Amino acid sequence: MKKFLFLCCTVFMLVLLSGTTTSAQENLSYEEVINTEVSELNEDLISDDLVPYGLIKKPELAGDMGALASRSTYVGKVSGAKQYHNSGDYNKGLTEMTKLGGRGEVYPVYNNNGTLQWRKDGSDGVAFYYQSSSFTDGLQRWTINFPGYKIRFMDS
Amino acid sequence: MENGKLIIWEPLENNPFDRFKEPMNLVSMHYDGVDLELTFSAFNSGQEFKFTYMQDETNFYAIRHFRILKELTRNDIEILIGKLREEREVAGLTRFAYDPTFYKIENSSFKSWYKSIDLSLPLPEDSHLEHHLYIASDYFIDVLSEQQPTITKST
């Protein structure tokens, strides 16, 4: 409640200040001033922390998945998904995950047994980053899975 | 979650599959209510391998149950693979030459769950029910059967 009151006061003060400045420069109507300033204010104040999750516009991931695939080695296609190998390790894979779609959070999900998986929600599907154990060398072979694509990072 | 013990299963004489280097592609899966057929191919060859569980005189049930799940959901199996590798290391065995795509599971949780709901199973001492695990390129397939699959190879 205190936060809300503080926000209202701030908005009011900013509107008053900017209204004075603007009216000195141009003859804008009160409504135009209010609308302009409030929308600018929203851009500045609203962060992902304040907006309900469902209201955030999700990024499109498919384009960047295609770009990542083009930097990987094609292995084959199965059930509609093209599979690739990438020579990177876990960190490289996680970096690639964060780059997908350019914005939007990569968030961790813990399995029942405490192991970790990463996810990123896109408007065109969910990307998963998960580990697959190698029996030969003990490496984890982290994999990005997105509808139509599967890219394994063979050095992880 | 599976908590059993993985046993490497080598049903093919000249096995072309390696989970990461030569993934096993699931071509088709067919279950008509009696028999189960799984067909796999190697990515880089035209070879196909058909695993068939078929009803016969000695086995009224070709299979008892099966399930198929996406790879990314089977972290329980990834952990068991890690455990098996560590056990080999501790035992001083040499590093395995390839990443297997076929396993059997002893003390299987899947089998225990099944046995808890199907009272038609023979007594434990008469039952040969086994848990077979197929690791295809994007799917893990579990089969509970009292028989070994018949394998045919085609090019």
Name the beta content range of chain B: 25-35%
The amount of helix of chain A comes to 25-40%
Beginning-to-end CA distance, first to last residue of chain B: 37 Å
Find the structural class of chain A using helix and strand composition: alpha+beta
Strand order of the largest sheet of chain B: 1-6-7-8-5
Biggest protein-protein interface? A-B, 27 and 29 residues
- The counted number of beta strands of chain B is 9
Query: How many DSSP H or I helices of chain B?
Result: 2
Taking all residues together, what is the mean pLDDT of chain B? 92
Residues in β-strands, percent of chain A: 25-35%
Order of helices and strands of chain B: EEEEEHEHEEE
Class derived from helix and strand content of chain B: alpha+beta
Q: Nearest-angstrom radius of gyration of chain A?
A: 23 Å
Name the shape of chain B in a single word.
globular
Number of helices of chain A: 4
Query: H/E order of the elements of chain A?
Result: HHHEEHEEEEE
Major sheet: arrangement of strands of chain A: 1-2-7-6-5-4-3
Major sheet of chain B:
5 strands, antiparallel
Low-confidence stretches of chain A: 15-26
Shape, per Cα inertia axes of chain A = globular
What can be said about the biggest beta sheet of chain A?
Answer: 7 strands, mixed
What does this structure look like?
The complex is a heterodimer of chains A (156) and B (155). Chain A has 156 residues and is α+β, with helices and mostly antiparallel strands. Helices cover 38% and strands 25% of the residues of chain A. Chain A is built from 4 helices and 7 strands; from the N terminus they run H-H-H-E-E-H-E-E-E-E-E. Chain A has a 7-stranded mixed beta sheet with strand order 1-2-7-6-5-4-3, with helices on one face. By secondary structure, chain B is an alpha+beta fold. Chain B has one domain. In chain B, a hairpin with a 4-residue loop joins strand 2 and strand 3. The relative contact order of chain B is 0.29. Classes of the chains: A alpha+beta (156), B alpha+beta (155).
